[in-house]
Design a protein that fits this description.
- By secondary structure, the chain is of the alpha/beta class.
- The chain contains three helices and three strands; from the N terminus they run E-H-H-E-H-E.
- The protein has a three-stranded parallel sheet with strand order 1-2-3.
- Helix 2 packs across helix 3.
């Protein structure tokens, strides 16, 4: 088994999240998304897909090829079902996008 090359660790706190605006606020706070972030699923996927590209300015968090960001997720089980499902779908789509680019996902989750 190959060791993970963790370049950053961040906390994505869903504990207080019960509404869509709070869901997007959590991502803005954790990843440093830009002021022009569209606050929808497509915009979130675009921002997370640019974690390996510092030139886009889509995320404050950037990881080099071969590196990952370790994301500690708190409060996932307590979130409303539709928000939790959106989170899971976003991660699945991110993984598919990375695979299409022949890259590994830049995110490794630890769910608390």
């Amino acid at each position: 088994m190959q060791a993970l090359n963790i370049s950053a660790t961040i906390r994505l706190d869903f504990t207080p999240v019960t509404r869509w605006d709070e869901y997007h606020d959590a991502f803005v706070a954790a990843f440093g998304l830009p002021a022009f972030y569209g606050r929808n699923g497509h915009a979130l996927l675009d921002c997370l897909s640019s974690l390996r590209d510092a030139d886009t300015g889509m995320c404050r968090v950037v990881v080099a090829p071969g590196e990952v960001v370790l994301v500690q997720v708190d409060g996932l089980a307590a979130m409303p079902r539709e928000l939790r499902e959106s989170f899971i779908m976003t991660l699945e789509l991110l993984s598919e996008r990375c695979a299409a680019r022949e890259q590994s996902s830049p995110i490794v989750l630890v769910i608390i």
